[in-house]
Amino acid sequence: MDRLLVLVRHGQSDWNLKNLFTGWRDPDLTPKGVEEARAAGKRLKALDLSFGLAFTSELTRAQHTLKLILDEVGQPDLQTVRDVALNERDYGELSGLNKDDARAKWGEEQVHIWRRSYDVPPPGGESLKDTGARVWPYYLFNILPPVMRGEKVLVAAHGNSLRALIMALEGLSPEEILKQELETGVPILYRLNADTTVAEKKVLKG
Questions:
Q1: Rg, Å, the chain Cα set
Q2: Do 64 and 31 form a contact (C-beta atoms < 8 A)?
Q3: Within a 10 A sphere around the Cβ of 27, how many other Cβ atoms?
Q4: Which is nearest to 168 in space by CA: 149, 190, 146, 194?
Q5: Which structural domain range is residue 147 located in?
Q6: 115 assigned binding-site residue
Q7: What residues form the catalytic site here (predicted)?
Q8: What is the torsional sign of CA 49, 51, 57, 61?
Q9: Which residue intervals of the chain are DSSP H helices?
Q10: Mean pLDDT across the stretch 64-80?
Q11: Does residue 73 register a pLDDT over 80?
Q12: Overall number of domains in the chain
């Protein structure tokens, strides 16, 4: 049985380009982001993969990325589940701010702590631990079961919601997951063992 899970961080968004904290705000993809998503789809098609189910967040940039990938793999009508549990980390009062402006307001060290600590949230927002608290149950009860049944599952989401998911998948510590950088539009392919542990991981870079 092929227990396959593919994770893709959305392509570059307008706010990625402008160096803004995005969080739950809802900008769309840039032209570069569109190309990144299409390229991801082409890489998956080259492996002759077809999927049984897809998941994405409630945010446009992830949904648009998923649509472009599914168009490329020839499955535009694939059953897709959208859920707020897969949304990006909520940056609270930082949302919409330029990262340099945030450093000027709160200081470089404080902004670095908010961005790179595991359990310190920005004002009114979520830490990575908080993000995990909604991602982990969703993964266990919604995403993992179809994978374990042998359905090939595709998830298009966000840097921090996917970090939390990868933390659970790979059994990483808080220190280890904070070092994980996820590139936009690059699929990560996991094959799972019968006990849900990772048998194989491939990063499908161009």
A1: 17
A2: no
A3: 18
A4: 190
A5: 84-152+172-179
A6: yes
A7: 10 (tele-phosphohistidine intermediate), 88 (proton donor/acceptor)
A8: positive
A9: 14-17, 31-46, 60-73, 99-106, 108-116, 128-138, 144-148, 159-170, 174-178
A10: 98
A11: yes
A12: 1
Order of strands, edge to edge, in the sheet holding 80-82? 80-82, 53-56, 153-157, 4-9, 188-192, 198-203
Task: Give residue 101's identity as a one-letter amino acid code.
Answer: D
Instruction: Evaluate whether 33 touches 61 at the Cβ level (below 8 Å).
Output: yes
Does the annotation flag 89 for ligand binding? yes
The verdict on whether residue 197 carries a ligand-binding annotation is no
54 falls within a domain: no
Q: Is 136 annotated as a binding residue?
A: no
**194 within a domain of the structure (yes/no):** no
- The residues, any chain, with a CB within 8 Å of residue 31's CB and separated by 6 or more, are none
How far apart (Å, rounded) are the C-alpha atoms in residues 53 and 63? 14
**Of 10, 36, 64, 126, which is the active-site residue?**
10
Q: Is 44 among the domain residues? A: no
- Residue 163 counted as domain residue: no
Let me know: does 144 contact 55? Beta carbons within 8 Å. no
Query: Does 13 carry a binding-site annotation?
Result: yes
Per-residue tokens: 180: 């994980």
Please say if 108 is a catalytic residue: no
Residue 206 has pLDDT above 80, yes or no: no
Mean pLDDT for 101-124 is 95
Which of 36, 72, 88, 126 is an active site residue?
A: 88
